[in-house]
Design brief:
The chain has 10 helices and 8 strands. With about 250 residues, the protein is of the alpha/beta class. The chain has an 8-stranded parallel beta barrel, surrounded by 6 helices. The structure holds 3-methyl-2-oxobutanoic acid.
């Protein structure tokens, strides 16, 4: 798609029912993101989600998908230790979930693991810029690589991930100009989130773009629906109808 100049549309999903809708609507790539830790489990960060939990979410998504590429996030702690641990985790994800590829965060420090996983036949997507699994190192979720030194490191890391065999790389919350440079200098596609329009594709967290999570509104987020409001209104009507015995009516019984 990059070679053909076609932009790549990616969204997260974590369960069968929404993955089915997302796939049916024509998405190119579904990411079973470790953002499941936030939007599904209500944790403050992505750090607590486990490999078993990620595999469960990925199994549910795979059951709902007929055509999209399913990429599964490797959770914190499942690959940082050493490349053998990383490979074992990636193999578990592929065997137990039926996903098509894995994603992991980091640059040169994860390249040995990327090579080992790719050599085992598993496609790997990289993730640079704001890498939420390192939130306790960064301290905040603000834009990354605004300074020259961090921008230069990001460019080196992107090249290193490509050389290690990544088939694509997510660029999260970095200046648009830097994302443009990275996208132009890499052969593999970049997928941006808060990284401007010059990336080869875009990704958003499904619950954010659907307006299910209402307390998260960074500048890069465009809300395509207000499902949270719709759910709230529907539940309120249901509660009223049950209390007033408006529901069920004559036709809604046996
Ligand atoms: O976990 C996730 O949802 C992600 C995207 C924000 C890229 O990694």
């Amino acid at each position: 798609m990059k070679q053909a100049g076609e932009k790549i549309a990616m969204l997260t999903s974590y369960d069968y029912s929404l993955a089915r809708l997302v796939d049916g609507a024509g998405i190119d790539v579904i990411l079973v993101g470790d953002s499941a830790s936030n939007v599904m489990a209500g944790n403050e960060t992505t750090v607590p989600i486990t490999l078993d939990q990620m595999i469960y979410h990925a199994q549910c998504v795979v059951n709902g998908v007929d055509r999209a590429l399913v990429v599964v996030d490797m959770p914190f702690g499942s690959y940082q230790g050493d490349s053998k641990t990383a490979l074992d985790s990636a193999i578990r994800i592929m065997k137990e979930s039926g996903g098509h590829a894995v994603k992991l965060e980091g640059g040169s420090e994860v390249c040995e693991s990327v090579e080992r996983i790719v050599n085992a036949g598993i496609p790997v997507m990289g993730h640079l810029g704001l890498t939420p699994q390192s939130i306790y190192k960064f301290g905040t979720y603000t834009v990354r690589a605004k300074e020259d030194a961090e921008a230069a490191k990001l460019m080196e890391d992107a090249k290193a991930l490509e050389e290690a065999g990544c088939f694509s790389v997510v660029l999260e919350k970095i200046p648009a100009e830097l994302a443009k440079q990275a996208s132009e200098s890499l052969n593999i596609p970049t997928i941006g989130i808060g990284a401007g329009a010059d990336c080869d594709g875009q990704v958003l967290v499904l619950h954010d773009m659907l307006g299910i999570t209402k307390d998260f509104s960074p500048r890069f987020l465009r809300r395509y629906a207000e499902i949270g409001d719709t759910v709230e209104a529907a539940v309120k009507r249901y509660v009223e109808d049950v209390r007033s015995v408006e529901f069920p009516n004559e036709e809604e019984r046996y």
